[in-house]
Amino acid sequence: MIRQTALTIITALLIILFSYTAVSKIITLQVFNSQLAMQPFPAWSIWPLTLLIPVSELAATALLLIKSTRLCGLYASATLMAGFTAYMGLVVAGFFSKTPCSCGGVLQQMGFEAHLLFNLFFLTIALIGIYIIHQMKGGLLSKL
Asked: Which residues cross the membrane (predicted)?
């Protein structure tokens, strides 16, 4: 019962996060594209990333919404959050010379350190969700 409740809360938080950020980016697609263009990415990658990031966030949301694909959604969420967290870690470490935030909505208002902690929180809960599902199914991770 506790595991199922925790999994429900984790899933809901991730759905809210990814649906909000994806829709925010889509609504302001040109702004998001301009912000990505200021990132230290190759110019050829900007438009593909402009489309791929919100579509990936929506795909993760869709996978999380369906019980039979929830584990895949948690893996997708963890993968996205790992990528975002690694990038934010490099920003905080001063690896890049220019680092405007290309995040959606109110997340743009966060400082980089706060954003790193935010990302670490969501990465952690996605990993906990994966662990819970494997534990409930009696899989390999439940024996750790």
From this structure: 45-66, 73-96, 116-134
Instruction: Please name the residues in contact with 106: beta carbons below 8 A apart, sequence gap of 6 or more.
Output: none
pTM, entire model: 0.88
pLDDT at 92: 85
CA distance 29 to 50: 7
Nearest-5° angle of CA 32, CA 33, CA 37?
115
Which of 98, 94, 132, 135 has its CA nearest to residue 9? Answer: 132
- What would the mean pLDDT of 66-93 be, rounded to a whole number? 94
Domain ranges of the chain: 2-143
73-85 pLDDT tens trace: 999 999 999 999 9
For residue 93, the tally of other CB atoms under 10 A from its CB is 10
- Annotate 27-91 with DSSP letters as a single string: HTHHHHHHHHHTSSS-GGGHHHHHHHHHHHHHHHHHHHHSGGGHHHHHHHHHHHHHHHHHHHHHH
Q: Distance (Å, rounded) from C-alpha 74 to C-alpha 69?
A: 9
